[in-house]
Amino acid sequence: MDNITDLGGDVYEIDTRMAGYPGITAGYLILGDRPCLVETGTSTSAPVVRDALNTLGVGPRDLATVVVTHIHLDHAGGVGDIAEFFPEAEIVVHEKGARHLADPSRLMASARMVWGDKLDTLFGELSATEASRIRALGDTGSVDLGGGRTLRSHYSPGHAKHHVGLIDSHTGDLYVGDAAGVYLPQTGDLRPATPPPDFDLRTALDSIALFEALGPQRLLFSHYGPVTDVAGTLERSAEELRIWVDLTRQAHAEGMDLDHAVAMVRERTRERYAALEADDATAEQFELLSGAPSNVAGIMHWLDRVRP
Ligand SMILES: [Zn+2]
Fold it and tell me: Which residues, other chains included, contact 134 with Cβ-Cβ below 8 Å and sequence gap of 6+?
C-alpha cells in the first residue's frame, strides 16, 4: 500500500489519511515479537490503519500494544476502534489521559465545543475502551517490544498535560507526539503546537530539554515523519515557542482580541514558514496541522492563567 513507509529498524510509518488528506497524521508500527502501534490516528482513520497493519502481517490477534503520546483526537481518536479490531492489544497511555479513553464522554463534549460540525469530518467519535485493557503510565514507564527491545516513556507535558515521549531502546527513535511542535517534511518548516487548554511555556520548554537529554538518534513526528537532525530541530522547537509566546504576549498586553492577535502573529511570523508561500494545498495542510488561531488562543489562555 502506498501509505506505508519502511523507516528501517523494523519501524513503519503509516499515513493515517486523516480526514482523507495525505501527510497530516502518522502512526508508527514497530514490528517484532510484540508488535506495537504508536498513535492510532482518528476514529475515521482506524480502518486505514487496520488495513496497513494487516498488509504488514499483523493480524487481529497479533498486535500486542497500542500506545498514544496523548489523547487528542488526531492521535488517540481511533483507540476504541483499534482496540476492537485487535482484541489482544493492551492500550498504554499517560495516567492523566487513561480515564478519558475508558469514558470519552467529557473529552468528546469539549472537543465538540471547540470544533462544532467540523468534528465529524476531521475526527469522528472516540469510542470507549474497556478499562481492564488500559495501562496507565506515570512519569516514566515501559512497553515490552519483545526480544529485549523496549519503548521507554517519559512524561512530557506542555502541549497537553497527558503527553509522553517514547524512546526505542533498539533504534534510539524518539516519538515526540506534538511536544516539539509540528514538522512539515516538504518544506522543513517547524511550528509550535500550543492549543488550549493545557499549553504552558515552562513545562513545554522543560519537555524539549528532556528530549534532548535522552540523546535520541532520530525524532519521529506524529505530524509528520522522521527527522535526523535532532539537536538542530529541538533547538528550533524551543525558539519557535519563544517567538510565538513573545508576540502573543505583546498582543495580549496591548489588549487585542483573539482575531487581531491571530492576524498580528500570523503576519509577523509569516516569513519564517516556506509552506505559507508554497502552493495552496501545502499552505492549507500546514494551517490544518497547527493553526495560528489555535496556537494564539492556547497562549492567550495560558497568559490569563499565569497573570497575577
Ligand atoms: Zn496532534
Answer: 90, 91, 92, 93, 98, 101, 102
Instruction: Flag whether pLDDT at 102 surpasses 90.
Output: yes
Q: Which three cell numbers stand for residue 299?
A: 497562549
| Among 58, 53, 60, 48, CA closest to 24 | 48
Residues with Cβ within 8 Å of residue 54, at least 6 apart in sequence: none
pTM of the model: 0.96
Residue 285 CA to ligand 1 center (angstroms) comes to 13
Q: According to the model, what pLDDT value does residue 232 have?
A: 97
The residues with which 65 forms a beta bridge, in sequence order, are 36, 90
Cα-to-centroid distance, 69 and ligand 1 (Å): 9
Sorted by sequence, the CB contacts under 8 Å of residue 273 that are 6+ apart come out as: 187, 189, 191, 286
Q: Give the CA angle between residues 80, 152, 156 to the nearest 5°.
A: 75
Quick one: cell of 239? 525558539
Distance 250 CA to ligand 1 centre (A): 26
Residue 207 identity (one-letter amino acid): S
Residue 1 has pLDDT above 60, yes or no: yes
Ligand 1 centroid to Cα of residue 144, in Å, is 25
| C-alpha of residue 213 to centroid of ligand 1, in Å | 23
Structure confidence by residue, pLDDT tens digits, 103-117 = 999 999 999 988 899
Tell me what pLDDT residue 275 has: 85
